[in-house]
Amino acid sequence: MVSLAAEAVSVIRSERLLLDGVSFATGDTGSIAIIGPNGAGKSTLLKVLAGLEPPTEGAVTLDRKSLADLPAAHRAQAIGYVPQHFNPHWDIRVRDLMRIALERARLPNILSALDRSLSEHDLEAFRDRWWSTLSGGERSRVLLAMVVATDPPILLADEPSASLDPRCRLDLIARIANHGQTGVCVVVMHDIDLAFRYFDRIVMMNGGRIVADGSADSLFEPSLLDDMFGVRFARSQQDDLRFISAGWPIEGDSDGNEKPG
Ligand SMILES: Nc1ncnc2c1ncn2[C@@H]1O[C@H](COP(=O)(O)OP(=O)(O)OP(=O)(O)O)[C@@H](O)[C@H]1O
């Protein structure tokens, strides 16, 4: 079991403060959704946790060892990262893309791991397809299959369901959240409904900071979430299932007082 932590991390790029003293730690297991408005710093935090963006201040540790000092293969085995966008510079077949990812993590039995992952994700038909010929949703599914093929204890995913139809979105998010039973998953997402339905823990970000971090149950109530997005969410709960959907924008006057809808 491994755990990942950011300790007082700040990121400055082009004189802009993207992350402002963020501290965050996973446990050994658990599903974590990072939510927040556009530009809040969610993707930046995920890239910092993946070791792809060096922090300007603070540190990222994997099992209390500095991530920056770990060999690349060790990092690739421990942390799987599903990017928001992936554009290879030249066209490549799905099987070759997955093979490269598996080789990078230096896993044995690459071909059987590749076939097992394609089969588990119902993607056998895409094995020999060229990346350029896949739809947006198919690319998202292949990217996830590629990353989990290495069986990383920590799975980081940046808006993995953005281009998926409703059925594929449910399948993919449930599959990722399920990773939190045996390992850790940290997912940046705008699907607030799925975040509260499938994830144990919600991290809310705004303005480069974590403004709330707690169980999905504890953050389901209105004040913080509605104020952060400027949206009145409609909520209901059936047994242990939480349903939430964006209702209508909160219209305020120039002093920020809400007008009755
Ligand atoms: N290299 C950079 N230089 C300057 N500003 C940057 C750089 N990278 C990101 N930003 C800015 O930092 C802020 C945070 O970006 P980030 O992608 O982390 O936000 P996000 O919460 O993931 O947003 P979204 O929900 O829109 O994807 C944004 O305002 C973005 O424009």
UniProtKB/TrEMBL annotation:
This is ABC transporter. Keywords: ATP-binding, Nucleotide-binding, Translocase, Transport. Coiled coil: none annotated. Part of the ABC transporter complex HmuTUV involved in hemin import. Responsible for energy coupling to the transport system. GO terms for molecular function: ATP binding; ATP hydrolysis activity. It comes from Hyphomicrobium nitrativorans NL23. SUPFAM superfamilies: P-loop containing nucleoside triphosphate hydrolases. InterPro entries: AAA+_ATPase, ABC_transporter-like_ATP-bd, ABC_transporter-like_CS, P-loop_NTPase. Residues 4-232 form the ABC transporter domain. It comes from the Bacteria. Pfam families: ABC_tran. Belongs to the ABC transporter superfamily.
